[in-house]
Amino acid sequence: MRMANKKNKNNKHNNTHKHVYRKKKLPLRGKKVLKEKLQESGSQENGSQDNSKHLTGSRIMDLEQLQKFIEIMNTHSAVCEGSVTLNHEDRAGLASILSGHCEKCNQNVRLETSNKVKGPRGYHRFECNLAAVWGQMATGTGHSQLEESMSALGIPVMTKTSFISTERDIGESWKQMLLTSMAEAGQEEKRIAEERGSFHESVPAITVIVDGGWSKRSHKHSYNAKSGVAIIIGKATGKLLYKV
Ligand SMILES: [Zn+2]
Question: Could you read off the pLDDT of 135-145 as tens digits, one per residue?
């Protein structure tokens, strides 16, 4: 969803530059000039100016949210002939809360670009942020790669701190899913052993496959690492029972 911002048309900075969303430390004089410019344009120094300058580039849009917004617009158009202009944005990572205003009837409208879901640690997070971090974790990449890809598309991303916090949430979720899955696989192995009458001293006995490994060498030298990985798989189900 591309939205042009008239206020920024004469901005000498190239908004399509791939590093545009990275925070840069301005020299003191630069900060002073920027402050003066903001005051000249009659804008406030707080969030509104900072946020409205982001009304360029692209955003990821949830189609259900867009449909809700269209319905609000249709209702507005039925009673008012004025047009709604997007004039403010609060960003939350890849998600945005956009505000629009109709000057004729003075109505304000609001559009959240993503749905919110509850994470395993109880925090509500925007779906698109969870999905983006999930994708990076699944491909073995991180915040800087996400930022690089999204900046090429003109999509601002979350801060590194927010990325790490989301990553922790997803990691906790994956851990819980893994523990549940291993417990269920154990119950299934037990049931199969009981059905087959496989017992050892009255305890259901199962056959497992174990494998593991540890580092033996590194660059220009060999050694035995004290840590490693190991898994236990149930033979009857072929499912993971335990991992370390
Ligand atoms: Zn109106």
Answer: 999 999 999 99
Per-residue pLDDT band for 19 (boundaries 50, 70, 90) equals very low
Residue 204 corresponds to which tokens in the numbers above? 């259901």
Residue 177: name the closest of 166, 169, 188 by CA: 169
The pTM of this model reads: 0.64
Length of the chain: 244
Centre of ligand 1 from the C-alpha of residue 242, in Å: 61
Q: How far is the CA of 41 from the centre of ligand 1 (A)?
A: 26
- How many Cα atoms occupy the beta-carbon half-sphere of 137 within 13 Å? 18
- Sign of the torsion formed by the C-alpha atoms of 3, 16, 126 and 138: positive
pLDDT value at 16 more than 60: no
Q: Is 3 helix (H, G, I), strand (E, B) or coil?
A: coil
Task: Round to whole Å and give the CA distance between 155 and 166.
Answer: 18
End-to-end CA distance of the chain: 45
Q: What is 40-56 written as a DSSP string?
A: HTT--SSHHHHHHTT-S
- CA-CA distance, 39 to 16, in Å (whole number)? 25
Enumerate residues with CB within 5 Å of ligand 1 (an ion). Answer: 80, 82, 102, 104-105
Q: Residue 114 half-sphere exposure, CB side, CA atoms within 13 Å? A: 20
Average pLDDT over residues 213-217: 86
